[in-house]
Amino acid sequence: MTVVYWRLAHLKRSGQDQDGFIVERENKVYDTDPLGWNNGVRQGMSIQEMKWRYPYAKIIPWSKKDYQSTYDNLCQWLNDNALFYVQDDVQQGYWGCQEMNSNQWQHLVTSTLLQWATRSTMGIASHSLLAQWLAHEGAHYPQLTEHWTQAHHEAYVARENKEEELWKLLPLEYLPENIPEYYPKDWKKRGWLRVGDVPNLYTKVKTREFGGQHFKSTAVIRVEKRFDSPVEQGIPELVRIMAEEIARILRERRQGSRQLRIIWEHEQGDEMRKRTWPVQTENPQQVVTRFLTLLSVLPQAPPQGIILEAHQIEDLRAEQMAWWSGPVVRRFQGDPEGPISESRRTRMLQYWDPWRRGHSLDR
Questions:
Q1: What is the pLDDT of residue 363?
Q2: Residue 261: φ, ψ to 5°
Q3: Among 151, 227, 256, 342, whose Cα sits 20 to 30 Å from the Cα of 248?
Q4: Which domains does the chain have, with CATH numbers?
Q5: Rounded to whole angstroms, how far apart are CA atoms 154 and 162?
Q6: Sign, CA torsion 12/155/210/217
Q7: What's the pTM value of the predicted model, to 2 decimals?
Q8: How far is 296 from 350, CA to CA, in rounded Å?
Q9: For residue 291, what is the enclosing H or E element?
Q10: Residue 21 is inside which H or E element, if any?
Q11: pLDDT, tens only, 48-82
Q12: What pLDDT score does 266 carry?
């Protein structure tokens, strides 16, 4: 299996297209036009730096709605084509496929990616950590990676039989912090900078699965209501009750859903409203809220039937396990029941060592 990590730039945004702009988010560059890229403007740079680097550019505040259409279309393509994906932001994410060679990558860029972005940098490897690192620093390792280019798109790909060397060169800063083996202070004291510097860490890290995978599912949860005559009032309250039933089933199954659909049945034909969210949920309040957001466009005619569906259903356990195994389960909760045998040495030391706690002292 192959993992593709990408960073997308010059993203398609709604509104009037114009030259000479920089999209600003939290006082940093979020995106810019092609001329800005030619002037060396890059994502994450300080807006203050743009005063001399790109002084005549118009600063446009970042707005989620400007990229919502691009994000929705991007996630829909990922859902239809990727084995799994994590795309929490329109600008970057990773996804999985069976394989990716140079021809397939060029086809991806020319036939698909240009719908959303005219620039991209990708890292391609068998693991998301390596893929992300190669997207950022793959140019520094020409002996271990292949470099694919197409117009303003490029990819750094782990060479066959070279991933073990890449793993050992992986900087420790790329490891997630919520792992039991993560001891940055100790590693810094010892001067360890890469995975290969830490004894036995390579064998542990390379076999771990990445977390947050959004696996596609064919399972569907459906709740239906049909009426003898068209319903003209009380539709939001009815949808709320039906959504609560969807949430109840999800919670009982310990599953979450990322795509919700409402289907209206009326004499003029069926209408469907659907939306996909980047994060799954089984929370009743969130499920109800998400269904109600689909009511912004009401059916053309009073419905004779309403169907609510939950798609892209995933086990919550897979989402919560994230990168590493769960917390260690303690053998005992509180004091163990029953007497514990003590060695002769322990019983003798209890009389002179006040910090030793033994049952004989309590007698």
A1: 44
A2: -135, 145
A3: 227
A4: 2-163 (no CATH), 171-208 (no CATH), 215-319 (3.30.1490.100), 324-356 (no CATH)
A5: 20
A6: positive
A7: 0.60
A8: 74
A9: helix 284-293
A10: strand 21-25
A11: 888 888 888 889 998 888 898 999 899 889 888 88
A12: 79
